[in-house]
Write a structure and sequence with these properties.
Length: 337
């Protein structure tokens, strides 16, 4: 759609330029033939006549020349009026489209509940958005850079143009209703300030922030972030493992990052009324009936039980890390919802 509109505008501007050159060419040729002037004098007389600057004639005009000048002035006024009207229409249409697009986006944002806010649509943020889209997780992007806004406009992503470190912007994207926030901003100061603001506006919000150094990671955690991730650390670790254990990395990548696949890693929060709560792992039938493998359990105190035994008791508040078939994982999620 945007490509079509661009081509239409380009075609219109070409037509306008052709009209201007046509009127100038018509006037120049007319004075050249009627008055017998040279090309430069004919062009000069045409420009002064059309612009109505009042410099006077280059040479005295004959009666035929005067009649032609009157016709040229009428043509010039009509052409200029038409050109101004076209330009004004494009300006008004552009503003209206922008306002309508913004209003439509705000309505979509107001409908969001339990969504995620992604701050920044750069190299890291775009990958976060792609993963959220694959998993059909509701989210909205906050971005202020004009170049990245243009990229977002060519997608179906819900976004808000503004500075994510401003409280009013966070409120506009429904931070009070949001489930989590992901900050991919490159600035350490911005991430610290954003974590502080977001935690103040929604104490229950799950906040994940980017950090480019260990020192920045500690500061952002103290500011209120639940998780701090360094793309450089993760990238370096993955490159090392991809070299030393390529098959393991490929398996984990397919399992964790391919929602279209039939086999993946997921996590499940055990609620008070869950059918697996307060039961031993062997009595939950997670393995026997659903064919799922429990590879870890994260306790409310943040301790992690790796490769839990069959005698391990699953308690409310535990987070179970599961490996298995996507359809079976969805069945377990539905049963424990």
């Amino acid at each position: 759609m945007r490509t079509f509109l661009f081509k239409r505008e380009l075609s219109t501007y070409r037509n306008l330029l052709g009209m201007v050159l046509g009127v100038i060419g018509f006037g120049t040729l007319g004075f050249y033939l009627i008055e017998g002037w040279n090309f430069l004098d004919s062009l000069y007389m045409t420009i002064t006549t059309l612009s109505m600057v009042g410099y006077g004639e280059v040479h005295p005009l004959t009666d035929n020349g005067k009649i032609f000048a009157i016709i040229l002035i009428v043509f010039g006024i009509v052409a200029v009026t038409y050109i101004i009207g076209i330009i004004a229409r494009f300006i008004i249409e552009g503003q209206l489209q922008k306002l309508m697009g913004k209003s439509r986006m705000e309505k979509q944002i107001n409908k969001l509940r339990g969504h995620y806010i992604i701050c920044g649509y750069g190299r890291v943020g775009s990958f976060v958005c792609r993963e959220f889209q694959h998993r059909r997780v509701p989210f909205v992007v906050v971005e202020k850079e004009p170049g990245l806004i243009e990229q977002l406009q060519s997608t179906d992503i819900i976004f808000y143009e503004g500075d994510a470190t401003e409280d009013d912007v966070l409120k506009s994207v429904g931070i009070e209703r949001a489930r989590g926030l992901v900050s991919t901003l490159a600035s350490e100061a911005d991430n610290v300030y954003l974590a502080l603001s977001a935690r103040h506006l929604n104490p229950d919000l799950y906040i994940t922030c980017r950090a480019d150094s260990l020192e920045a990671e500690k500061k952002i955690q103290r500011a209120g972030a639940d998780r701090v991730v360094s793309p450089y650390v993760i990238g370096g670790l993955r490159m090392a493992l991809a070299t030393l254990r390529p098959n393991v990395i490929e398996f984990l990548h397919v399992s964790a990052s391919s929602p279209e696949g039939n086999f993946r890693i997921e996590e499940l929060l055990v609620k008070e009324n869950s059918p697996v709560a307060n039961k031993k792992l062997k009595d939950t039938d997670i393995r026997a009936k659903l064919g799922l493998i429990v590879i870890g359990i994260r306790k409310p105190d943040k301790t992690i039980i790796r490769n839990p035994s069959a005698e391990t008791i699953i308690e409310p508040g535990d987070i179970i890390i599961l490996l298995g078939d996507a359809m079976q994982l969805e069945k377990l999620e539905d049963a424990t919802a």
